[in-house]
Fold this sequence. Notes:
This protein is an alpha/beta fold and 217 residues long. It contains six helices and seven strands, in the order E-H-E-H-H-H-E-E-H-E-E-E-H. The protein is elongated.
Amino acid sequence: MFTVPLPRIGTDIAWRDAAKRLISAGVPPQEILWDYSGKLSALLESATPLPNVTRRVQAPQSFLTLAQSVVWHRSDDRFALLYNLLWRLRNNPGLMNDSEDADLNVLKHHDAEVLRAQTRMQKSISFRDLRQSGVRHSFAAWYNPAHHIVESTAPYFARRLAKLDWMIATPDITAQFIDGNLSFHPGQPKPDWHQHTPKIDRYLGDLFNPSGEIGLG
């Protein structure tokens, strides 16, 4: 039995690496426990090290795209469902086109929910102005997303707010963009904003203008 620890930060990379190793070694789905954020930490003392990749692993691009989205869903079974689908694709490469496959339909539903959550986050973030002086403005926001989407959505804000320093804190992960560098850190509780710390919702309107420029006047 393989117990695979998956961190809160970098979940997508960790899952992809583990799945590549396991599928390459021919490890069936029923011999894997996916441990997201230490929920099964008591079992890790006897965990078997993951095998090395012994052969080239191929999967349809449609599966890779689906997996890149579904890993951010909150469902506990998302990793097992993805690996089970990858396992079945070995002998049925056309499976991604099967509209009646139950597991695939569940994963597509997860994918749709993640995409909706990402769009909602892009449109709903409410920043606070933390500093008025200095070369770069500094803003912060707290948000409680429906799914683990901070890592996949933060690059959107990095592109749109490239001239600003900002932080988006959530219960799971905090994204920071300082001097043009995007990084991720542990989550935070909702801050007790000072009543005089102004919101800057007006900047969000600028995010969606045709030129994509941010007004700082």
